[in-house]
Amino acid sequence: MRSRVDPEAVVEPVSSHTLRRRVQFYELDSAGIVHFSTYFRYMEEAEHAMWRAAGLSIAPLGSEVGFPRVNATCDYHAPLRFEDEFDVHVRIAAMTGKAIRYAYELRRGDVRVATASVTILCVRKAPDGSMKAAPIPSSIAARFTVAGDAGVPQA
Amino acid sequence: MRSRVDPEAVVEPVSSHTLRRRVQFYELDSAGIVHFSTYFRYMEEAEHAMWRAAGLSIAPLGSEVGFPRVNATCDYHAPLRFEDEFDVHVRIAAMTGKAIRYAYELRRGDVRVATASVTILCVRKAPDGSMKAAPIPSSIAARFTVAGDAGVPQA
Amino acid sequence: MRSRVDPEAVVEPVSSHTLRRRVQFYELDSAGIVHFSTYFRYMEEAEHAMWRAAGLSIAPLGSEVGFPRVNATCDYHAPLRFEDEFDVHVRIAAMTGKAIRYAYELRRGDVRVATASVTILCVRKAPDGSMKAAPIPSSIAARFTVAGDAGVPQA
Amino acid sequence: MRSRVDPEAVVEPVSSHTLRRRVQFYELDSAGIVHFSTYFRYMEEAEHAMWRAAGLSIAPLGSEVGFPRVNATCDYHAPLRFEDEFDVHVRIAAMTGKAIRYAYELRRGDVRVATASVTILCVRKAPDGSMKAAPIPSSIAARFTVAGDAGVPQA
């Protein structure tokens, strides 16, 4: 149960992914809706599921590269409540040698819950804990591609 | 997508449930293992999934009763790491007129990760926010029963 | 210990606030730096401290109005590590009849850690849990004012 | 601002500590009270503050030892609500060559909110991520001592 990647061979590079999720009690605030900071955790879950679908882990044990976030932004359109089921759609909106920008849409059925964007930067970690921007390893870059219009969910 | 209960008719009372879960990145601490407080959130997820399997929501909108925790205890046997898949087994270990005690076992394949216990108390909420112990409504109590030996996972 | 407001009389409307905070262990991710979603929680802490400094609570028990977030955005400039002490500076960047936009800067000594913006909307809560945009009550609006240049921390 | 220890010389070993804390909005659940899992985070904050008071950091960068939890238990006596101020009192209840057991009491003024216990184990970390029980380094053990009756808060 520790194989971190999907077992099937991965042929085509990946450009989008959809995660189905249910709201948990500890994610609510006292207004009975999901706390705004939690949306960024939902987005991260969908991102990492997309990496697994590409045959990758974003943080394998002992890795010398990491992917900290340099920007995160979210527009909140509708609340999520206890036990709601919803979808997190992530697609690769842009990719450079050192950075990837994801675009997100969260939906509960027909309701658009949030639209968002997160940019990650590839860094190389030094033994002293410092981090320096570095090229995305080709073994990773080759597995992803920018989403075309087909990657955009239809409203 | 807002029906909070499983649609099929529920005939037999429920005494245990198993939730399959994957470790998310934001649940790790800086040692690369799941933070000890997060185990209690995993247990809550399994508990609420058991309530749904019993045709119930533990916190429907506007409910006059609630189920705060009066005791929680966990023994940690093995760590969980990024993207590990594991099972949370919950069973009803004891039930009185006002309280339910759950027993938990977390497993990653053959590895016993944690054993735990949580006791909840039924309370009636007053408009001023105060809470007072109250009998578990019969519509809820009728859906659950204490687990026999069959509810204990075999090591 | 339940008085939710600062005891001294509040005369001048408030336009900014600075919160000193220390990084806690459970806020780190497995890279040993604060998780990006946690920055939004730091910002919320500073915001609510500013409300208290204005003699207000943003969520008094039984309140009929609430302030959900409609946008949140953050640029991450430098990491925060275990036990780092840092400052969260919040100022009111814009205010309309129904919304407030906060601008944030997080600093660890001379290091600019993050710059951010969060917009909140005043809503009136219906008994069925739905929320509708509503004017900010005058008792609240009168306590705040948009920050001038004096509210901008000097780099 | 990165000095992780209190600057004054530490002479006497430490056996207890009290942390004053305020409830934050993101720590509440939809019942308007602090989520039960969060109490363990409060306890961790008080524990690490006690380590700092002893001139130590529990997780300095690059440390070869760590202190995972092997047991955590909490009895919940009274709820905590938004913006409540409360105290977390931690004392060393027992100490062996490889483990420390803390006893906790949380109070809001005269109200006893929770009593709890957490046991930590000293481990040595291998490069492959595995952990093995190990003696508490003497530089750490020398800074702590089991609390006598003086360490017990008076009700």
Provide a brief overview of the structure.
The structure is a homotetramer of 155-residue chains. Chain A has 2 helices and 8 strands, in the order E-H-E-E-E-E-E-E-E-H. Chain A is mainly beta.
Descriptive report:
4 copies of one chain form a homotetramer. The first copy, chain A, has one domain (16-147): Thiol Ester Dehydrase, Chain A. In chain A, the strands form 2 sheets. Chain A has a 5-stranded antiparallel β-sheet with strand order 1-4-5-6-3, with helices on one face. In chain A, strands 2-7-8 form a 3-stranded antiparallel β-sheet, with no helix packed on it. The first copy, chain A, is built from 2 helices and 8 strands, in the order βαβββββββα. In chain A, strand 5 (99-108) and strand 6 form a beta hairpin. With 155 residues, chain A is mainly β. Chains in contact: A-B, A-C, A-D, B-C, B-D, C-D. Chains A and B meet through helix 1 of A and helix 1 of B.
Largest interchain contact:
A-C, 26 and 26 residues
Please state the structural category of chain A. Answer: mainly beta
Helix residue percentage of chain A: 10-25%
The appropriate CATH architecture of chain A is Roll
Order of helices and strands of chain A: EHEEEEEEEH
Radius of gyration of chain A over all CA atoms, rounded: 16 Å
| General shape of chain A | globular
